[in-house]
């Protein structure tokens, strides 16, 4: 087994693809905040593909993070010269490659001083991020900026020592403005509808709390393109590390992923960009249609299946699709209740996308846990599922399965499975969700009264009555009985 680093690349097994470019000649162009598995399997891979063709050699990635555990990741990657093993898990077989587009990782400190200093340097022209859907300090229902969050209040009062990545971006942009370096592009790579607009809102609104002139300068000079990203990338644990070992590589942080990637980007970069389209990304003025299809069907589809699966004790997404009732539930809800509100995109109809997602979810080599996908439902349901409910109510199309999805989430948040085992806390607001879920066992209206998620939906009789019916049935007869009742209708 070969320990991964620059010196050992030539010692790796012959079937492992490695960088063919001179990594010592790479120069930085991008800071990426939130350097988790998804980024390394997706955005960094696109850049690596360009570098393999001798392009974008001045766009290398500098990793960054703002959480204490990001320092652990930094040290792991530093030990292997920031190289990454990507293991593709195709149903027909496994393949692997080592990517090298990342060349540095900023030390993680509480005041974010190293991150601010690095983003302020002239070679950095894009600051990208993957910090999860719930990390943008917005109201889940209205999508308005949450100026009252303690983190935001801290950054407004301490703009030179911020806690958040957005405060760090604003601080770096102030230095760039004052020194004449100029703006950079903020590129959001999280699953949010209009994610570039949301990133702009968060950075500009935060800056405005302490420096209105800076906020105006950022808003006028920086660009924040919308984008849509897609690739199923499980978390790394002992199984994934062991898989790398089986391939002959000692990698402290290997990444497994499916054999599918998609990246749709609005071409709005104020300081230049790599030609990612030459590696398969798509630049378009209509990101919205692509992101609507993906967020509603794939991300929404994940939430459709995981509530029921957690209650039934099904541990993986492929396991969900092996359960005939859950698989049929996903397909019926997606085709009948989501597809009517999704427009086709070039080369893909919503119906064919449902078929694609069903097969991707069912990939048995992808060990994507139900628990991982169910995490942070308090952000994911308002972002991925509830908009389809609103569309269905407005258009008069069916919403019964979506109401059942919400009832399954409520049942999951009660905190026990049908076999009596405990569901461990899995949401930033788990305590509040559990209180509401326990109250809803006898009075379902208590769950949808959480207007921070549902807004005024509790006052919509068609949804409220369906939700009441499904949650009562789940508690009375069980999750499988509720799914089968829906499927039989």
TrEMBL record:
<dbReference type="InterPro" id="IPR036291">
    <property type="entry name" value="NAD(P)-bd_dom_sf"/>
</dbReference>
<dbReference type="Pfam" id="PF01232">
    <property type="entry name" value="Mannitol_dh"/>
</dbReference>
<dbReference type="InterPro" id="IPR008927">
    <property type="entry name" value="6-PGluconate_DH-like_C_sf"/>
</dbReference>
<dbReference type="InterPro" id="IPR000669">
    <property type="entry name" value="Mannitol_DH"/>
</dbReference>
<dbReference type="Pfam" id="PF08125">
    <property type="entry name" value="Mannitol_dh_C"/>
</dbReference>
<dbReference type="GO" id="GO:0016616">
    <property type="term" value="F:oxidoreductase activity, acting on the CH-OH group of donors, NAD or NADP as acceptor"/>
</dbReference>
<dbReference type="InterPro" id="IPR013131">
    <property type="entry name" value="Mannitol_DH_N"/>
</dbReference>
<feature type="domain" description="Mannitol dehydrogenase N-terminal">
    <location>
        <begin position="29"/>
        <end position="278"/>
    </location>
</feature>
<protein>
    <submittedName>
        <fullName>Mannitol 2-dehydrogenase</fullName>
    </submittedName>
</protein>
<dbReference type="InterPro" id="IPR013328">
    <property type="entry name" value="6PGD_dom2"/>
</dbReference>
<dbReference type="InterPro" id="IPR013118">
    <property type="entry name" value="Mannitol_DH_C"/>
</dbReference>
<dbReference type="InterPro" id="IPR050988">
    <property type="entry name" value="Mannitol_DH/Oxidoreductase"/>
</dbReference>
<keyword id="KW-0560">Oxidoreductase</keyword>
<feature type="domain" description="Mannitol dehydrogenase C-terminal">
    <location>
        <begin position="286"/>
        <end position="471"/>
    </location>
</feature>
């Amino acid at each position: 087994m070969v320990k991964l680093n620059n010196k050992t690349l030539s010692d790796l097994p012959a079937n492992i693809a490695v960088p063919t470019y001179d990594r010592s000649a790479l120069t930085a162009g991008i800071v990426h905040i939130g350097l988790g598995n998804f980024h390394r399997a997706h955005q960094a891979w696109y850049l690596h593909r360009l570098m393999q063709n001798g392009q974008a050699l001045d766009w290398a990635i500098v990793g960054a993070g703002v959480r204490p555990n990001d320092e652990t990741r930094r040290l792991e990657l530093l030990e292997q010269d920031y190289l990454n093993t990507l293991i593709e898990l195709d149903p027909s077989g496994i393949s692997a490659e080592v990517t090298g587009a990342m060349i540095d990782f900023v030390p993680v400190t509480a005041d974010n001083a190293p991150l601010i200093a690095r983003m302020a340097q002239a070679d950095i022209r894009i600051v990208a991020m993957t910090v999860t859907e719930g990390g943008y300090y917005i109201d889940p229902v209205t999508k308005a900026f949450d100026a009252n969050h303690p983190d935001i209040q801290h950054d407004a009062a301490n703009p030179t020592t911020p806690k958040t990545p957005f405060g760090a971006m604003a601080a770096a942009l102030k230095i760039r403005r004052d020194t004449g370096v100029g703006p950079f592009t903020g590129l959001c790579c999280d699953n949010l509808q209009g994610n570039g607009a949301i990133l702009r809102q968060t950075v500009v609104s935060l800056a405005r709390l302490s420096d209105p002139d800076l906020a105006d300068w950022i808003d006028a000079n920086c660009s924040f393109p919308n984008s849509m990203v897609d690739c199923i990338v499980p978390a790394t644990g002992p199984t994934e590390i062991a898989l790398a070992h089986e391939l002959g590589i000692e990698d402290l942080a290997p990444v497994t992923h499916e054999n599918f990637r998609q990246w749709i980007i609005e071409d709005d970069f104020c300081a230049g960009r790599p030609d990612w389209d030459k590696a398969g990304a798509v630049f378009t003025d209509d990101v919205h249609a692509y992101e609507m299809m993906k967020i509603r069907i794939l991300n929404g589809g994940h939430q459709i299946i995981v509530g029921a699966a957690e209650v039934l004790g099904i541990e993986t997404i492929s396991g969900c699709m092996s359960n005939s009732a859950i698989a049929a539930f996903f397909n019926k809800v997606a085709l009948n209740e989501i597809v009517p509100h999704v427009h086709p995109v070039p080369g893909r109809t919503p119906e064919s996308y449902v078929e694609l997602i069903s097969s991707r979810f069912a990939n048995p080599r992808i060990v994507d846990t139900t628990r991982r996908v169910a995490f942070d439902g308090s952000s994911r349901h308002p972002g991925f599922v509830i908009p389809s409910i609103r569309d269905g109510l407005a258009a008069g199309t069916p919403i019964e399965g979506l109401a059942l999805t919400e009832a399954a989430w409520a049942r999951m948040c009660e905190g026990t499975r049908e076999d009596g085992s405990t569901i461990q806390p899995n949401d930033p607001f788990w305590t509040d969700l559990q209180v509401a879920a326990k109250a809803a066992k006898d009075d379902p209206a208590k769950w949808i009264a959480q207007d921070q998620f549902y807004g005024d939906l509790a006052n919509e009789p068609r949804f409220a009555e369906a939700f009441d019916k499904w949650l009562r049935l789940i508690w009375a007869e069980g999750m499988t009985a509720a799914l089968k009742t829906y499927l039989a209708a």
